[in-house]
Amino acid sequence: xxxxxxxxxxxxxxxxxxxxxxxxxxxxxxxxxxxxxxxxxxxxxxxxxxxxxxxxxxxxxxxxxxxxxxxxxxxxxxxxxxxxxxxxxxxxxxxxxxxxxxxxxxxxxxxxxxxxxxxxxxxxxxxxxxxxxxxxxxxxxxxxxxxxxxxxxxxxxxxxxxxxxxxxxxxxxxxxxxxxxxxxxxxxxxxxxxxxxxxxxxxxxxxxxxxxxxxxxxxxxxxxxxxxxxxxxxxxxxxxxxxxxxxxxxxxxxxxxxxxxxxxxxxxxx
Length: 270
What we know:
The chain is an alpha/beta fold.
């Protein structure tokens, strides 16, 4: 099994582009990324070519695991082993263990209530310096992508398609699911922003710049320019998301399981 730490420092003092699937990616000039080092988040590979891919939902994002089973051997995938082991077939797991690199996010017990992003990987010390195979991850895979870029050796990290908001009702550059986990989209987007924003000053301590690139010519009304670009490029103004796939939790069972777990820590089971 390959570990993500084997990839560290492959691109010292480089510009690395972290590509999300926000709606702005639909109108971003792809030619700007030719010859660049790119890390695609989840299904970003559907919109443009990427060198690396990172996800914690391999069954939803990795092309070889999707129903059409596309082959993209040019993408170096980074994911979590336990997520892969619990969500794919034995043959797919064997493929993943042979070809993919794995990272970890467990740093402390989760303190969040059900359907809130787990904070077990919200450890800024992992952003300050490479820490084994651990990558910072709280509310969005973009955070793990940025953590990976820093450990690959980036001097400058550019976010593209990491909008942290919807544009004219669009959540993504192409059609895919949403996963809001019993919260509003705006609440989740705010958590995405907070997680990435708290990484920025820590990266600056390492001499790494983190900025966001957009195709828009004004920050006063990006949706206006988004609509204009869609018309100029003959691309759809609205691509509706497929149904939300958030897991439905059995809350009484969840809290009972938490109580039992805490009880075992206090009263050892004989």
